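User: Here's a structure from my thesis project, written as structure tokens. My advisor, Dr. K., wants to see whether a designed sequence matches the one we expressed. Can you design one independently, without my sequence as a hint?
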């Protein structure tokens, strides 16, 4: 049997009835006859140079090619698929009306139309695969773009017949088999196609397979299984196959894809990356003005953090949650620094007022808020431990009883009914199931329950089984930032005790180590943490990192963008991948990573990596003579304080109890630095801003990126540094 005949049988075999004989083929001259059983009927297919003839029940139908046969109503019935997908997606897509824009690695800047056109051009080549990587942080709109592409293809299918998109989502599961996820997506569409038919449809350019949240498809041993299965899929789709992979920008990259997927032949295949831009501040203001925000709210000082370049609020999910006049008033009267905490707390306040007069009469606002937060924490824990993203209504009711144990029996009955419509949850695709409105909200509550559990020595099942990625660690830092110093100390101390009791094979050891490292980005722990003989999948350092000792540790990926690691001590340790930028200050003892990922490039040459690390703290970009920038931070106290402030993440520095803020405001040189910053019009100072606590002073530092990098090439920076150097004498050893 020739290779072409073997391929033909492989394409048709998934369409024959289960339990029937496998398709048989006979070749006579230029014709090939294939016989199979489909839907209980014998089907004869004759292939020749003129196309394909299907004979069934004595009737004949002609098709131009095998591709058109597979798309026909008698096989995959893609027309029906398109109709179902269009109906399924239309309301959701039309409600997501924020314009998407990104940068393609080869076709330049563009939106969904440009991305779609690029992919449609790409699959027209023979014997090649097109793989498009959609990358960006959480909430940036990756899922919305895939949905919009799927809807656009389905809507135009009857006329244009471009490949339909099968949207496969991770759904919070530890990966067992990608085909399981494909089967669920097909079931959702009520498509007549089965998961084992998908490779043939992809291979013939009839379906584009979109795997959404590929960075979440890890198993207890990492991502090897996910990469291996994707590699097999690409091999099986060799032909006109097209794939969409979405994930965070630190995980999905062209370099990593080509290393992890040997099936991609760069001489034949097309590998494209599409990086999504945040919404521009001007676009965000225009959009919010159409959704309930008046001019007073848009230009108010409390709303300024929303429109700062790089703000989380400029990501479509978060912006959509701000779209109401009610929320605009909450912004103007609240403390808007951490977008996620603000949204969650605002939503909780609104929800606690919706239980009704009977509940309000016998419970306090604090009791109702505690119930809501406890319930959502338990839901997040249940989802994480069951490795899914949806929860049944019965389980939700049961968790409601768990969260309301201190409330009277009569009131608990009312709460059971109310939890089915609580704003943090939305209907899942499965009837009777609920899911969080967004992964970021789920992570927020999961971080809270993780802190509570580990602080008491409890190790939840999900800590032993899941991988804590960068999205989770970023959420963790924002949640932990609002804890008291005593709670941080208790958490870290308990984690270190727990680590001593865990074996090297226990994944909890990796995850807990990552959390201890993250704590050093938001607080100075009194007893310096020491991590020995540990391996960490992903770790995060941000801002000014407090002292921590890492001995004989291996970190697969360390995100140190914008961080000052001067106080971090490494000993006999290894870093596989380091994410860094011009604001990164390395430790003296940092091991040279195998791979350095910068905003503009990826560096693998060891000497080039060493050169870059050296340039980050040597005097080539600073005015301190023979002193390295790192040494200057110690020699000039005002420089060190400025570097700490420039790395302080929240938009407003509040004169309150927050730990990182107090580290700046209680510094003996703060008044001198404040005077210099005011003199150069770099500091915005506000008094008596309404807040949840007492009246306070708030500060905002302008041009933080340039100040963090101490970019001495800027004329205004040279004047600032000159004032700082002359303000206080050099600290001598």
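Assistant: Designed independently from the structure alone:
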């Amino acid at each position: 049997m020739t290779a072409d005949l073997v391929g033909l049988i492989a394409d048709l075999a998934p369409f024959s009835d289960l339990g029937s004989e496998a398709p048989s083929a006979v070749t006579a001259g230029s014709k090939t006859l294939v016989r199979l059983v489909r839907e209980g009927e014998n089907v004869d297919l004759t292939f020749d140079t003129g196309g394909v003839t299907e004979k069934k029940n004595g009737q004949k139908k002609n098709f131009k090619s095998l591709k058109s046969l597979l798309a026909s109503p008698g096989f995959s019935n893609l027309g029906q698929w398109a109709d179902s997908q269009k109906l399924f997606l239309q309301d959701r897509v039309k409600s997501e009306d924020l314009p998407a824009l990104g940068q393609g690695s080869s076709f330049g800047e563009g939106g969904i139309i440009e991305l779609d056109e690029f992919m449609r051009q790409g699959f027209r080549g023979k014997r090649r695969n097109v793989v498009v990587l959609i990358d960006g942080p959480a909430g940036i709109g990756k899922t919305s773009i895939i949905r919009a592409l799927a809807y656009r293809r389905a809507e135009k299918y009857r006329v244009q017949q471009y490949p339909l998109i099968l949207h496969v989502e991770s759904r919070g599961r530890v990966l067992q088999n990608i085909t399981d996820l494909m089967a669920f997506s097909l079931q959702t569409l009520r498509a007549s196609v089965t998961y084992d038919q998908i490779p043939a449809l992809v291979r013939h350019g009839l379906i584009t397979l979109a795997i959404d949240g590929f960075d979440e498809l890890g198993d207890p041993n990492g991502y090897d299984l996910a990469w291996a299965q994707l590699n097999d899929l690409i091999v099986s789709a060799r032909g006109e196959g097209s794939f969409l992979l979405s994930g965070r920008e630190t995980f999905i990259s062209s370099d990593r894809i080509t290393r992890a997927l040997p099936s991609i032949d760069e001489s034949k295949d097309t590998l494209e990356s599409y990086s999504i831009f945040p919404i521009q501040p001007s676009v965000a203001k225009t959009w919010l003005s159409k959704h309930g925000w008046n001019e007073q709210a848009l230009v108010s000082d409390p709303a300024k953090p929303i429109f700062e370049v790089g703000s989380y609020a400029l990501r479509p999910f978060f912006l959509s949650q701000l779209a109401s006049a009610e929320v605009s008033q909450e912004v103007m009267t609240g403390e808007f620094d951490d977008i996620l905490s603000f949204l969650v707390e605002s939503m909780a306040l609104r929800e606690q007022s919706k239980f009704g007069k009977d509940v309000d009469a016998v419970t306090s606002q604090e009791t109702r808020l505690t119930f809501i937060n406890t319930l959502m924490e338990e839901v997040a824990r249940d989802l994480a431990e069951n490795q899914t993203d949806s929860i049944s209504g019965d389980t939700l009711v049961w968790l409601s009883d768990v969260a309301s144990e201190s409330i009277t029996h009569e009131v608990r009955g009312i709460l059971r009914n109310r939890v089915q419509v609580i704003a943090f949850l939305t209907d899942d695709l499965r009837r009777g199931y609920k899911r969080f409105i967004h992964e970021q909200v789920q992570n927020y509550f999961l971080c809270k329950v993780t802190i509570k559990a580990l602080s008491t020595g409890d190790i939840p099942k999900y800590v032993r089984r899941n991988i804590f990625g960068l999205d989770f660690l970023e959420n963790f830092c924002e949640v932990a930032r609002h804890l008291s110093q005593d709670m941080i100390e208790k958490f870290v101390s308990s984690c270190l005790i727990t680590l001593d009791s865990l074996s090297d094979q226990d994944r909890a050891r990796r995850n807990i180590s990552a959390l201890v490292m993250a704590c050093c980005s938001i607080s100075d722990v009194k007893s310096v943490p020491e991590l020995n003989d540990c391996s960490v999948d992903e770790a995060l350092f941000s801002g000014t990192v407090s002292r921590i000792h890492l001995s004989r540790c291996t970190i697969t990926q360390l995100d140190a963008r914008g961080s000052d690691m001067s106080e971090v001590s490494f000993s006999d340790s290894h870093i596989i991948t380091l994410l860094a930028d011009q604001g990164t200050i390395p430790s003296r003892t940092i091991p040279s990573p195998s791979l350095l990922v910068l905003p503009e490039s990826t560096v693998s040459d060891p000497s080039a990596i060493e050169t870059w690390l050296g340039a980050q703290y040597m005097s080539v970009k600073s005015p301190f003579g023979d002193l390295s920038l790192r040494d200057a931070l110690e020699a000039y106290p005002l420089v060190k304080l400025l570097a700490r402030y420039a790395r302080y993440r929240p938009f407003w520095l509040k004169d309150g109890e927050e730990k990182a803020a107090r580290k700046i405001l209680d510094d003996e040189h703060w008044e001198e630095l404040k005077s210099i910053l005011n003199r150069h019009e770099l500091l915005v100072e506000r008094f008596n801003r309404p807040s949840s606590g007492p009246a306070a002073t708030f500060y905002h530092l302008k041009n933080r990126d340039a100040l963090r990098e101490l970019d001495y090439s800027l004329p205004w920076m040279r004047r600032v540094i000159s004032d700082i150097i002359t303000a206080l004498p050099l600290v001598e050893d």
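When you compare it with your expressed construct, this may help: The chain has a mean pLDDT of 85.
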